[in-house]
Amino acid sequence: MEQQKEANKYSIIIPTYNERLNIALIVYLVFKHLKDVDFEIIVVDDGSPDGTQEVVKQLQQVYGEDCVLLRARPKKLGLGTAYSHGMKHASRNFVVIMDADLSHHPKYLPSFIRKQIETGANIVTGTRYVQGGGVHGWNLMRKLTSRRANVLAQTLLWPGVSDLTESFRLYKRAVLEDVISTCVSKGYVFQMEMIVRASRKGYHIEEVPITFVDRVYGSSKFGGSEIVEYLKGLAYLLVTT
Amino acid sequence: MKYVIKILSLLIAITAFWIALLEASVIPRSYTWLLPVYFVVLLGCYGLLMVGIGLMRFSTCPQEARLLQQDILEAKRGRRGQ
Question: Transmembrane residues, as ranges (chain B) (predicted)?
């Protein structure tokens, strides 16, 4: 156990776009909750005009340039490619992916790590749909939509994972590399494609409950077009996996 | 095997079973004709039930938002201290 702890190192990839207010908080909280863990934070910024990169540079001075890495891209290129971009620069054997908008609280990181060590899983994914998990800031309609979408996906795809669209996950680096190369979707359908493909490939997936607090700063990105995208993604996965 | 093929073969198997029932007339034909309707209704009920259960177990956690606000305040103070 002790030896394993020494061998496990974590790269935390955080894609950002206009997250100047949140990124410093996230980094602070990650350092607060991961005390005895070897990790690096890789911020993949898609050319935010709000000065996110300047904030990250200040953070580098506080926490050290080998702990907080800035791997920016010139313009907004999408989530899926942000992960593969971040992964190219990830030097550790585990990769954690999380959102920068504080809907994913870094206090759950230790439970991801613990779960992985206990079970030896290839992927540990956060889930809002089990005991101990949940959401804040969603009205009944949003919850209903979320549940309907989930039942539809569960019935059609049998993925063996309770929360398909949650992006807070820990991957073995090699597994993420393997899965990411076969995924083509964009946006949050990408999360679903990743986990369904991983499940089909027979990777060992475990779950930990997390709570999702809808964006504190900035605006949430959810609308009718997301539902259409979701259904398209579902149909795509149905015929390709 | 692609999942759509699995689902389609399941549907074909059910249809074949239904046609067999229709041909063999073990139960009155008027009943057999209604079976697909029951099947669809049953599927709908399953969906509703699952969504209902899911919705009931989908907890809201206002305390998490409060804790997050505390953490944000703490982080802001912490940074000023540095």
Answer: 34-56
Q: Is A241 on the interface with B (CB under 8 A)?
A: yes
Q: Give how far A122 is from chain B: nearest CA, Å.
A: 23
* Whole-angstrom distance, CA of residue A57 vs CA of residue A43: 10
| Neighbour-count burial of A68, counting CB atoms closer than 10 A to its CB (0-12 exposed, 13-18 middle, 19+ buried) | buried
Cβ distance A154 to B61 less than 8 Å, yes or no, reads no
Contact of A201 with chain B, judged by CB distance below 8 Å, is answered with no
The answer, for A159 touching chain B at a CB cutoff of 8 Å, is no
Backbone angles phi, psi at B14, to 5 degrees: -65, -40
- The reply to whether ipTM tops 0.90 is no
Contact A157 B2 (CB under 8 A): no
CATH number for the segment(s) A2-240:
3.90.550.10
Of A45, A7, A8, A9, nearest to A26 by C-alpha is A45
Domain ranges of chain A: 2-240
The pLDDT tens digits for B7-65 are: 999 999 999 999 998 888 778 888 888 888 999 999 999 999 999 999 998 888 888 98
- Determine which of A144, A211, A216 to mutate to test the interface with B (most B C-beta atoms within 10 Å): A211
Residues of A in contact with B76 (CB under 8 A): 25
